[in-house]
Amino acid sequence: MFSFKKRPFAVALAALSLVGLAACGSSGGSATTTQASGQPMTLTVLHVNDHHSRLDAETASFSLMTASGARRAVNVERGGFTRVAALMESLSAGKDNVLKLHAGDAITGDLYYTLDNGKSDAAMMNAVCFDAFIPGNHEFDMGDSNLKTFLDYLRASTCKTEVLSANIKPQLGVSALAKTTATDYLKPSAVMTRQGQKIGIVGLTVSLKTKTSSRPDATTEFLGEVSAAQAEIDKLKAAGVNKIILMTHQGYDIDKDMAARISGVDVIVGGDSHTLLGDAGLANFGLTPSGAYPTVVSNKDGKQVCVVQAWQYSHALGELNVSFDASGDVTQCAGTAYVTIGENFKAASGAALTADDLSAIRADIASQSSLRIVTPSVTAAAVLKPFSDAKTAFGSNKVAMATEELCLRRVPGTKLDSSRSSLGDLCNKASRVIAHGGDIQQLVAQAFLEQGKTFGKADFSLLNGGGVRTDIRPADVTVSTIYTLLPFKNTLVRLNLSGQEVVNALEDAIDNVVVNKSTGAYPYSAGLRWTADLTKAKGQRVSNVDVLLADGSYTAIGLATTYTAIVIDYIADGGDLYTTLKNVTAGRRENTYLDYADAFMNYARKNPTLARLPVAQYSTQGFVDLP
Q: Is 30 a residue whose pLDDT tops 60?
């Protein structure tokens, strides 16, 4: 390994090159402050992740204390990027020690992205003016060229947001991200100065998941996360930077594990797993966090590391305050992931709230720190308005009505993905969801099957749970709802498969869940049922696979029988490590070029009252969770 200690001239050159970056990302701090870099300091990190083009506020239900002394379900606006912008401005006002960070998956997931390919996301991010952004896996959903387009939108301002990833290596001269130099669009790290002290920021993007769950160019290389992070941290340390923030897009559990395997890291600001962190008291409001904010672990050196994440969909903003000693070691970390809400409260039941109720509700919110009433930024709202107007015009047409909650959950059980639902504990703790998985994934699978029967006599459908992006609450289902639910540009593919290939494909998907914690790979089907046991080895995890017959009964799958499956092109091409499907030869596959969102649109129009399917039709009939 290259040793800076043996090459003092190389150290000097590295130090000079890194100092040249220190003026970048100057919002919330000055590169000219003269405080000595060897003194203690406190740094404030404001951060978001996984907003997925979800720029608008949405109505959410919270369990709030009313005048009677009892908690009631109360509806209020939650989130929205205009609230993120307002709170970011408020928390950074008058401070010279602030960094603003976005940990990836800014795009795909809402009609905004369908309409403008990320231009609205970039405009809102520039309204905040982030110091650094890292690409998540979904930034690569449409390849390197599409990511370049988004980053060009992001560059169309004076913010100079650094775009970082130490483990992504676009091929020079081939990738749109590296036409002239390897760092045209992506840098491994940046050094920013706050209060006269240098802070190194290293970017990291989940490797295997991006290669298998998205569509980066085949020539773009993704390095191992731990080795890439350590190599870049070592360079920064050798150049005299003693405070290191690792921005990651790989998931909360992986972040905690990685911290113990890396030397020199002080803070990990993460994304990808959509993890809500905070005080356990959040459960009183109907939101159960997956851990403390911040979560404090130890690095390979045995020193403190602050690990944070800020939920999803512009719902939350994290504020992390980190104290460093003169050597750059963390002495304390504290903070809050604020879930931003409005101030117009209405009882979910429709009953009137009295003035005393409203006073009690506001007092309840004021008694804790995680729920924060925030007035949207007028400036950011003006930036959003033309995009919002275009979205409203296209998306407001009603298609159907949902009569009950259709919960989002990728993996059944309680060990993986247990805080995915935007409806909180109403869905996350629902017994049917824990036992069988997501209601909405199951309904989408049904829609695909009906489309497949119409256009190709399909026996069953198969999809990856991560392809379905949101819950549906009891309300009108509009064009906008459907394109938010299914925001990607996928088509339906017809495959002729043997029963053995079907079982193998299910094993492929579940192996990706177990081994790589890629929860989005978990399979859903209409027309198939099975039992999944995550404690067993690959090849033994799927059993009791049944196929639906024309009379409505089920029979055991015939391993030598040929079936017609309707799947999305993404998994047909091997996405999410559905390797068996990728190997199906051309003579047994046909791309129908039918849009997958249109398939659900057609289903909703034919079934204008949307409700959960009978549990007996859910594809996961039995489930054994990880220990």
A: no
